[in-house]
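Reviewer comment 2.1 asked that we show a complete input and output for one of the modelled complexes. We chose the zinc ion case, as it is the one discussed in the main text.
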Amino acid sequence: MYICNDFKSEPQKISETIMKMYTRAELRKELVNAGIRPSVQRLAIYEYVRNNRTHPTAENVYESLRDELGSLSLTTVYNTLKLYAEAGLVMTLHIDDGFLRFDGNTMVHAHFRCDNCGQIYDLPVKDDYHAWLEGTEELFVTDAQLYLRGLCRKCRMEN
Ligand SMILES: [Zn+2]
Ligand SMILES: [Zn+2]
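Response of the prediction step:
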């Protein structure tokens, strides 16, 4: 198993690899390719979850978009995110306190949750999960998540 150990000393490097921003046109195309009709609300929700690496809950997305999209409801946000998860466009994470979080980065990566500030950071992994573990060859794996906890760099400096 290889987990990037650089995150304590070189957080910049990780954000470079993970902070790609997508244009609205690119995102619209991804929805169409997945067979999803890109309404204004759907596209805004998708853009939010793809371009914000905060691993938001449906409530977070709703709070952020409801001023921009007057008629938006929390139910719509939740159902839309579930639709994206089923289509494989976003990942669902269950990494703290029973909150369902959504991740617009579907490439294999690990997560680090800071026990102090609650931020969830993406960590790149060198290989996919088959390389982390033995005995997966005969399994049909549908999900693999690696989740680390501790103190983030910022909180370590402050404590
Ligand atoms: Zn922290
Ligand atoms: Zn992530």
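The chain has one domain: 6-158. We note this here for comparison with the apo prediction described in Section 3.2.
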